[in-house]
């Protein structure tokens, strides 16, 4: 029995849920998201709660049960509050700035890295060494943050590079004399 799947997803006020067979559309103050549930689960919406149940006792439907419930919870959370991911830049001369719909990164290369900000994503740089990626789609926010980090991941000797704000970089000892 899935401990995650058996909990219903509470829908806060101000969020409109429309269930049409296996398709769900969630509308909130930040926008609208939709997804299609896999055929191995049954979905119902009543009394302000989304409930996900497996169709039968097969291993596949029990595996999909908790995941589909979490994806529905991410839709509701995304349109009501949104998601964000914070990045920090460490290194001499490393900095970032937003120019229109592009993120300009100076990461020690001979050229600046120009990253086009996709639709549905908002990037803010309060300081030149901090980046906040936010949006309503959790997967897209994480993907954009991973792509930015991928240009210069933190290296283990000096810790220079782009890292997540909650990431701990294991440092190595340098060479000995």
Protein architecture, described:
Keywords: Ribonucleoprotein, Ribosomal protein, RNA-binding, rRNA-binding. InterPro entries: Ribosomal_uL6-like (IPR000702), Ribosomal_uL6-like_a/b-dom_sf (IPR036789), Ribosomal_uL6_a/b-dom (IPR020040), Ribosomal_uL6_bac-type (IPR019906), Ribosomal_uL6_CS (IPR002358). This is Large ribosomal subunit protein uL6. One of its GO terms (cellular component) is cytosolic large ribosomal subunit. Belongs to the universal ribosomal protein uL6 family. With about 180 residues, the chain is an alpha+beta fold. The chain folds into two domains: about 10-80, Ribosomal protein L6 (Outer Surface Protein A, domain 3), CATH 3.90.930; about 85-165, Outer Surface Protein A, domain 3 (Alpha-Beta Complex), CATH 3.90.930.12. About 20% of the residues lie in helices and about 35% in strands. It contains two helices and 13 strands. It has helices at about 60-80, 140-150; strands at about 10, 15-20, 25, 30-35, 40-45, 50-55, 85-90, 95-100, 100-105, 115, 120-125, 130-135, 160-165. The strands form four sheets. It has a four-stranded antiparallel beta sheet with strand order 11-12-7-13, covered by helices on one side. It has a three-stranded antiparallel beta sheet with strand order 1-6-5. A three-stranded antiparallel beta sheet has the order 2-3-4, with helices on one face. Strand 8 (about 95-100) and strand 9 form a beta hairpin. The protein is elongated. The N and C termini lie far apart (about 60 Å).
